[in-house]
Amino acid sequence: MKEVISLSKQRGFVFQSSEIYGGLKSCYDYGPLGVELKRNIMNEWWRSMVHEREDIVGLDASIIMHPRVWEASGHLAGFADPLVDCRNCKERFRADKAPRAQPGSDVDYTEGGKKRGKPLKGKVGERGYVCPVCGSPDLSEERKFNLMFRTSLGPVDAMQELAEMLAGKSLPAEEIRRLIDEKVKESAVYLRPETAQAMFVQFANIQQALALKIPFGIAQMGKSFRNEVTVEHFIFRSCEFEQMEMEYFVEPGKQKEALEHWKTERLNWYLRYANDGSRFRLRRHAPDELAHYADDCYDVEYLYPWGWGELEGIASRTDYDLKKHSEHSGVPLTYFDQEEVDPQTGKKGYRFTPYVIEPAAGATRATLMFLLDAFAYDNPRPDSKGEAKRRRVLKLHPRLAPYKVAVLPLVKRDDMPELAREIVRQFFDAGINAKYDEQHSIGKRYARHDEVGTPYCLTVDGDSVKDGTVTIRERDTTAQERIKIDEALSVVRKRLEKV
Ligand code: GAP
Question: Other CB atoms closer than 10 Å to residue 466's CB: what's the count?
Fold first, then answer.
């Protein structure tokens, strides 16, 4: 993980946000290589979910939606983490992630959580956990902390209005809090914490505009925001991240079959691009883990350096969301099938609220996973000075690799740069991302492109100018071969298609 983080910075994949100002907790910028990798992952997802399927269409909805969306979905009331303060070391943490301990049992800890602090003894409370940092059972009450980022829409200044309203009044703290909440709520809007809700809210518009027949799906990818209490493991969990979600609408009763289909489909999607399939698994949620809207759920999990963890959730969301939005908006979100027999009446013509299967993936999390999966060291080999050196290589799937091919003039003269640029142009014209690179020695350039995962390097040398041939070097094997320049495009294209 440390090596991946350092390579990400060195080679321009991921930087800490606002680094020159000391960085901003859990915010990251995707550099020149990272933006390509993340986009390639998202494009591959879109291709397999939307372009290659007759039954799924896309959506790109506004990030800020009507606040009532979040009331209906339950996010305003329920999308909250239980927060606790440790009275001993002052750590603020999530109760549901805290280390469990037997209620009533004795625990030892130190004053202030310090290594050489005064030894203390305490009893674990009824809630059955202790502080994750110092182990103290001396904890505050749990408070609900909503994960949605709140802002306001329009030229309103709620703070000014509040100041005027409260000026000179002596009110109890609770009353002030109630008045502030009420005022802020009047103009409050939220940054979406998931891309899913817009696909429920636009269900009827999309179904009618495209005359879609059930089963069908709506897919969306883009930014989501959560004011996460615990941010961890680099870009694994951050406050601003990207999701790739699809809502698949089926007739009630057909959800089990659809869940089976999607859990296999989604696991296989990852396996198609990964090097080490043994690090992926499907895990079914235990009944007590299921979200309130789900009747079943699987996670695609990956074996991260710190253990198995979620990569994607595939939930059977029942008809919960469509029904809730229907109730709250007063607009029916149902589907009418003229041909289907209504199980209640036994007659043709069946109106129902569809059930939903939702494969919900994280694009930023998948970026981390593919970096971890691709990062490798080759066996040591002697370098030009005869010293054994390990080669660092990013074995990214060619479709995910930021550059598909690097074109390298051996030296910056004798018409080599011009010819190399001409070759790059051919790749651009064919829609293949190529990189012209003339900086440093050829050995350093190969090493650089191995480290950013470029699958092929084309080297233009003195002979190229004379006989129209170039050397093609493969990243994983380092094998080199001489090919005609005229064939370079088709050779690379064929190799890209083969995988
Ligand atoms: N609509 C359902 C939903 O959003 P989720 O399990 O909360 O479900 C789906 O999120 C996926 O989004 C996760 O499997 C993960 O890949 C990604 N994700 C969620 N929260 C994230 C965060 N704070 N940072 C990065 N990725 C996150």
Answer: 9
